[in-house]
Every structure is written in C-alpha cells, then in structure tokens.
Amino acid sequence: MIWDDHQSRCIGELSFRSEVRGVRLRRDRIVVVLEQKIFVYNFADLKLLHQIETIANPKGLCAVSQVAGSFVLVCPGLQKGQVRVEHYASKRTKFIMAHDSRIACFALSQDGNLLATASSKGTLVRIFNTHDGSLLQEVRRGADRAEIHSLAFSATAQWLAVSSDKGTVHVFSLKANPGNVGSDRSNSPDPNPSAGPSGSSLSFIKGVLPKYFSSEWSVAQFRLPEGSQYIVAFGHQKNTVVVLGLDGSFYRCEFDPATGGEMTQLEYHNFVKPEEAF
User: Fold this and answer.
1) Which of 16, 34, 60, 127 gets the highest tally of CB atoms within 10 A of its CB?
2) Which of 9-13, 103-107, 271-275 has the lowest mean pLDDT?
3) Given this model, what pLDDT does residue 143 score?
4) Is the Repeat keyword given for this protein (predicted)?
5) If DSSP codes are grouped into helix, strand and coil, which group holds residue 69?
6) Rounded distance between C-alpha atoms, residue 126 and residue 124, angstroms
7) How far apart are CA 129 and CA 156, in angstroms?
8) Contact 70, 30 (CB under 8 A)
9) If we measure between CA atoms, which residue out of 92, 207, 47 comes closest to residue 198?
C-alpha cells in the first residue's frame, strides 16, 4: 500500500503472489523484494521497470542509492556469497563474489559508489567499489561468529557503523572514498595498521602475525544490552551515531575520531512501555 500522509489516504496498491520480504524507496522508484525476485517500479505511475531474480532471500536484503540521478541497486546474486549491483544510469550489471558464506547484510553509500558486505560468519566486513567490483578494504568486527544486523555509511563515506547480536556497535574508519577522491581527509587512517586507535588488545602484534591480526579493527565502540536487535545510522551532528532497538530503545552517542575507544552516550529513550514490549 502506498500511503500519502499529506492527503491522509492510500494512493496506490501493488499485489504479489508471494510474501513481500522488503520494500525500498527513492523519490523516483519503489523496489519490492520477494523471496526470490525483486521488482522495480516508477513511483509516479507505478509502471514496472525491471525484474531481477535472486537466490533465496528470506531477509529481503536490498539497498538503493539515494542521490538523485545515479540510481544504484544492490541485491543478492544467484549464488551463495554473491551480490549483484545494478547501475541503472549506465545500464551496467556487476556481480561481486563478496564472501564464501551466505550474505547476511550489506549497505550502500548514499551515492552508490561504495558497498559494505558481511557474511553469515559476521567476523569480517568488506568494502567494495561498486563500479569495478574491486575490494577496497576489509575490517574486522571480532574473532567469534556473530549475526550482523545492520551496516551504515556516514554521509561522507568516511566512517562505517556495524551492529550485531553481540550487543556492540563498532565504528570503522574508511580509507576508500571513490566519490570524493580529491577531498581533504583530515582523519585519514594511519598507513601503518599496527599504530593508531584500535579496538583490540592484540594491536601491538598485528605487524607480526598473519592476516587475521592485520585486518583493521574498529576505532570506536558502544556497548548495548544483548538480546535485542539494533539498527545503526549516523546522526546529523558530526561524529554521532544513532542506534534503534527492536525493544523500543533509542540511543544517540558520540565518538572521538582521533582517540577512538568507548563512545559517549548523549541521549536515551524507550518508545515502548515495558508492558507493551514484544
């Protein structure tokens, strides 16, 4: 159902033969995600523009860029661990073998140039260039398996936030920024991965040990009560992260880009009364 809140009425309806697993919106497009198919519609007249077949997608994974003019859509491919990138402006399709395991979560930067992916293992997050499919960076959430619930780029794609069922939100510093290559990066990461802020007590031996230790750890962390599912986003204020829990909780916190470490909680609310919690 497409609801116009200004008119307080339903202005359109789309129906499907199987369960709708997800919906994504842009100002000009509506994307509907089914278990094994994705439909792209023109918002103005609800005309069907494109159909995409995917591997089984019970979570309804799909992401769209939000910048006007460049429409990029990312969805699971037809193989385990594969993602499909549709560049509608240039009419190009790119397949990226992102992981060996099943894709659990992904996110696009606002301009659609960068893609962050996580597998069902939940230990590593990979950042790709969506145009050529190249792997730009790999960051490590932790050593043990986790279910990653949410990934989010900051508006400038300088930072990436990750939430998982471990109850910790991590913020990573991103090196890659193809949409803004010439920009001055005041907080660019140290080229030596064994120096600078690190979320791990193992950072001092990263230069000695194999790849496990050399993948980059988070700059800043925020700990939440375990047991709920959390979604992360970056706030409008600089260096702030917003966290929403399915238990009705809302957190706003701030990280220090220079020293990193534990984030500072600025705000907390719960929008669900305890007796109504589900």
Assistant:
1) 127
2) 271-275
3) 85
4) yes
5) coil
6) 6
7) 15
8) no
9) 207
Q: Please say if the pLDDT value at position 177 is more than 90.
A: no
Pair 89, 98: CB distance under 8 Å: no
- Give the SS3 label for residue 204: helix
| Confidence band of 22 (pLDDT split at 50, 70, 90) | very high
Which position has the token pair 């995917």?
A: 54
Query: What type of residue is 128?
Result: F
Residue type, 58: P
**pLDDT tens, residue by residue, 25-63:** 999 999 999 999 999 999 999 999 999 999 999 999 999
3-class DSSP state of 165: coil
Write the CA distances from 167 to 114, 146, 221, 223, 233, integer angstroms.
Answer: 26, 10, 10, 6, 15
Paired sense of beta strands 249-254 and 240-245, if any = antiparallel
Of the candidates 102, 101, 146, 151, the one whose C-alpha atom is nearest the C-alpha of residue 128 is 151
Local structure of 29: helix, strand or coil: strand
In our burial notation (b when 16+ CB lie closer than 10 A, e otherwise), range 30-67 reads bbbbbebbbbbbeeeeeeeeeebebbebeebbbbbbbe
Task: Look up residue 54 and give its DSSP letter.
Answer: -
Say if residues 150 and 163 touch (Cβ distance below 8 Å): yes
- Four-residue CA torsion sign, 37, 43, 44, 50: negative
